[in-house]
Amino acid sequence: MDGDDFQAYKDEIQALEEEIRLLTEKYEDMQQESTFFSDEEILNSIKSLQRETQGETKGDESLSDLKAQLERLETDLSFLMEITGFHFTSHSKKTVEKTQNRTVQKHRLSGKCHSLSFQLEFQLLEMQNNEKVSAVVSDLSIVMDSTEDSNVSKFVSRIEECGDLPIFFRSLSTYAEWYEHRKRTFLHFK
User: Fold this and answer.
1) Where are the annotated coiled coils located (predicted)?
2) In CA terms, which of 77, 92, 97, 103 is 20 to 30 Å from 26?
3) How far apart, in whole angstroms, are the C-alpha atoms of residue 156 and residue 141?
4) CA distance 8 to 14
């Protein structure tokens, strides 16, 4: 074997190793993503999955299990949407930085709580120490369509400063529910 053949094989091996590394990173990013899908996207995914598995003979059993699991998840999602009043319309996540024990992701989330629309943008820093994982929200930005009430604007500003998403969602749920009651009451008197 001469040197040129050896170098060509070595270059090919390096190219394949780089491709494997990139595909592994892409796979890990896809595994970590928690994306909310619209009903149309879910149906498209089901149809795509059905097309992929139609030619497989042993896939019939796993396909029925997947369909049952998807139906349970859809039922759970609609139950949670009914209870909380939240309907998420879009979610995107981009990994900004990733090391062995630290991950920074940028999230964009939009949706409605009852009739109030909202959009969130924030960074999530996840740090892993031994077996414990901690997460910190930073750079929180909240946009709400209905900000005619100055108290809502003040509340949003405070939440943006402290970055406490659970308090935001709990408070928004309660406020939006009572906002709906107030609207119906005022319509009744008109």
Assistant:
1) 6-33
2) 77
3) 9
4) 10
